[in-house]
Each structure stands twice: as C-alpha cells, then as structure tokens.
Amino acid sequence: MSEEPKELNQDSQQIEFVEDLDATGLYCPEPVMLLHNRIRDIAVGEALRLTATDPSTTRDVPKFCLYLGHELVENLRQGNNYVYLIRKKDES
Fold first, then answer.
1. Is 5 inside any structural domain?
2. pLDDT at position 90
3. What pLDDT was estimated at residue 26?
4. Which string of DSSP letters, residue by residue, matches the chain?
5. Domain assignment of residue 12, yes or no
6. What is the pLDDT of residue 10?
7. Going by C-beta distance under 8 Å and a sequence separation of 6 or more, which residues neighbour residue 28?
8. pLDDT in the model for residue 5
9. How far does CA 58 lie from the centroid of its chain?
10. pLDDT per position as a tens digit, 12-51
11. Is residue 32 in a domain?
12. Mean pLDDT of 46-67
C-alpha cells in the first residue's frame, strides 16, 4: 500500500529536477503515460517533477516507480495538486 502524500511545507527537501511535467487536469492513465514517455528522455540519475490533480496518481505513480525501479524521491500534496519527484534508475 502506498504512503499518503505529505503536505508541502517550508521544511520540504529541495530537489533539483531537469523536467517539470504538468499533468493537471489529466485523468488515469494519462499522467502515468506522460511520466513513462518523459522519463525515457532524461539521463540516468536525473530527476523530474510530475504535478497532477488526479487522486489515482497517489496509487499509480508509486507503483510505476516500484515496478520499473525508479526512485520516488518525494511524494507531496500541495493544495489540490499531487507532486512527485522521481529519479531515473540506472539502466544496467
């Protein structure tokens, strides 16, 4: 079972990311499809940020990361948005 996203606050860890994906207004399965396509375009070890409004992403994004081996660095809730910071895995 996935962990509930925590609220974004001032103490939240600052993570640098190279891609900023806006999936707001999109519904399952579109946010994960967008994530899947974009993570292919970044280098191993780089991170991207996905912002979504669909609550199903709280289940789908952690499972996507677990299944494909990418690191879910942070899982936040910012108002009505769900924000995910994901680092691309080593492809070896």
1. no
2. 87
3. 98
4. -PPPPEEP-TTSPP---SEEEEETT--TTHHHHHHHHHHTTSPTT-EEEEEE--TTHHHHHHHHHHHHT-EEEEEEEETTEEEEEEEPPP--
5. no
6. 41
7. 54, 56, 57, 60
8. 54
9. 9
10. 456 678 999 999 999 999 999 999 999 999 999 999 999 9
11. yes
12. 97
Residue 49 lies in a domain: yes
Residue 16 is predicted with a pLDDT of 78
| Structural domain harbouring 34 | 17-87
Tell me the C-alpha distance between 70 and 65, whole Å.
Answer: 5
Domain count, the chain: 1
Q: Which residues are catalytic?
A: 28
Neighbours of 76 (CB within 10 A): 18
Q: Which two tokens stand for residue 2?
A: 């996935």
Q: Give the CATH number for residue 53.
A: 3.30.110.40
